[in-house]
Amino acid sequence: MLLVAGLLGCGSDSGTGGIASSAPFALRFAPGQMTELVQGQHCVLLLSLEPATGGPVTLRASATEAEVRIEPSTLPSDGLAEMTVVPKPGVTGDVDILVYAERGTHLCTDPLTLRVAADGARAGHVADLALQAAGHRQRFVAWLAAERPELGITADTAWDGTIVKPDILVVNHYLFFSDEWEMGLQWRLMTPPQDWSRIYLRRRFVDTVPSMAFEIPSYTTGMVRQVEPSAVQMTEITR
After folding, report:
1. Out of 14-23, 135-144, 147-156, 191-200, which region has the weakest mean confidence (pLDDT)?
2. Do 55 and 143 belong to one domain?
3. What is the C-alpha separation between 236 and 239, in angstroms, rounded?
4. What is the pLDDT of residue 19?
5. What is the total count of domains within the chain?
6. Residues 201, 231 contacting (CB under 8 angstroms)
7. Residues 51-101: pLDDT tens digits?
């Protein structure tokens, strides 16, 4: 199920296109829609300001059924923040969040709702999927370390991961985050040579769309003999 994840700006209504004409600024959440979260997993939303002028805004958030952190908490007018939402253990259903944005004397609040799936069977596959995802990630990391050293991604890079798009069949989706990069991983559950794997890399706190993307045409073949990734186009981040 797709859920609206907070498209409205400060003080706006549905007829303003997400920006309130009477407000000094509006908050933008990206992406605008989310799939349900798997129990025990988390999500990361991107926050920016419109217009991208007028000075920094202080951000904070509150939720009774989740831990929420926003980085950076002071957002430059032309900057990008990330809001990480970690539902508390055992929570299912709707998780309501209030985001507060303040500039000078102007304070506005934006509500958004995420949903945690009640299907415990999905949660039972978390560890197995994480192990599979780590294996696919390492194939790309080894190549990136050798061929794209300017990115600073090596075997020693630490990653934090989470499942996304759990209801998509045939293709598994997983997100990894290092200090500098978001890696969106996809791998297709088909027989060779249709079993591709792909990643995009997004520079965190800078880009709202993939900075670059790469594909291994058949990961099963790549286990038997060396298959180098090639550059591909991916235009949207995964959530």
Report:
1. 14-23
2. no
3. 9
4. 36
5. 2
6. no
7. 999 899 999 999 999 999 999 999 999 999 999 999 999 999 999 999 999
For residue 48, CA distances in Å to 18, 30, 211, 212 come to: 12, 8, 17, 21
DSSP 36: P
Residue 87 lies in a domain: yes
Domain extent, residue 21, equals: 3-118
208, 30 contact by CB (below 8 A): yes
Considering only CA atoms, give the Rg of the chain: 19
CA distance linking residue 54 with residue 223, whole number of Å: 53
The predicted-structure confidence for 118-155, as pLDDT tens digits, reads as follows 876 566 688 899 999 999 999 999 999 999 999 999 99
Dihedrals phi, psi of 73, to nearest 5 degrees: -75, -20
* Alpha-helix residue ranges (DSSP H) falling in the chain: 120-123, 126-147, 219-224
Distance from C-alpha of 24 to C-alpha of 103, rounded to nearest angstrom: 9
